[in-house]
């Protein structure tokens, strides 16, 4: 199995700032169009059994006010839920949350769906295995490959052997990680020079 360059290149990246409950946040947006109806993409993003296949081992309640866990990504709480177009979650288990994820789905005229996956963070850095990285830069390693596994899942092409919690260990997803982190590095540099 490979994740070829055209598949990787189908994800668009954007970085901007906006206020969240914890203060001014940098917002990384990952935009991708899927060849699936909006209801199917929504279900894949809100059903813990389906999330477990392509995203992470999510457990809990993904309805408005519900709390959940997502493996190494930590706990979260649903703060907005407008099926099948908008889902906002606060991450970290404290208030105000330093991080928020918002999923915005748009049905396209051709029957496909555009997903905007926004992660807003007030944190400057993130520690991984004792190393300190820019908090936004790290998002490329998490979301870059997962937006590809979502595509594979929606098409019924995600191998059963793939463990969504270990995508960073699988060579076939390394190009997606590298491409997404490189795209974010350019946006971070532009943000520093604004």
UniProtKB/TrEMBL annotation:
InterPro entries documented for this protein: ASHA1/2-like_C (IPR013538), START-like_dom_sf (IPR023393)
Pfam families in UniProt: AHSA1
Gene3D superfamilies noted in UniProt: 3.30.530.20
Domain Activator of Hsp90 ATPase homologue 1/2-like C-terminal residue range list: 35-127
Protein family (similarity comment): Belongs to the AHA1 family.
The protein's name in its UniProt record: Uncharacterized protein YndB with AHSA1/START domain
Organism: Longispora fulva
